[in-house]
Specification:
The protein is mainly alpha-helical and 111 residues long. The chain has three helices and no strands. The protein has one domain. 77% of the residues lie in helices and 0% in strands. The longest helix is centred in the first third of the chain and has 35 residues, at 3-37. It is elongated, with a radius of gyration of 18 Å.
Length: 111
């Protein structure tokens, strides 16, 4: 593959990588918001419902973390196939979002 083709491949992969990170961030953010927004509303109701706002929020946060995990796996596979490509900054951003997601998951479960 020529240099222009490699650069085009890298840039398209970077766009895809950032889409994965945006999707994961949206899932984590919406999950945490759903959990906290309806937390006060559901305090007076009977606990133990299978589908509660907390369960939905925690599930969305977990899906966001799973999406980040899949992205990191894909990123490693990409770098195995094309080792000459420079490292993507999206991997670093994904790690930061992953830390945020784990914190949100802990706070949602602890509440």
């Amino acid at each position: 593959m020529d240099e222009l083709g490699l650069e085009n491949l890298r840039l398209s992969y970077e766009r895809t990588a950032l889409a994965w990170v945006r999707t994961a961030l949206a899932l984590i953010g919406f999950g945490f918001t759903i959990d906290k927004l309806f937390e006060a509303h559901s305090r007076g109701q009977a606990a133990g419902r299978f589908v509660s706002p907390q369960v939905i929020g925690i599930t969305m946060i977990a899906f966001g973390l799973i999406a980040l995990g899949l992205f990191v796996y894909e990123l490693r596979q990409f770098h195995k196939k094309y080792p000459q490509m420079p490292r993507s900054i999206a991997g670093f951003v994904a790690a930061l979002i992953g830390i945020l997601g784990v914190m949100a998951l802990v706070f949602a479960i602890a509440a």
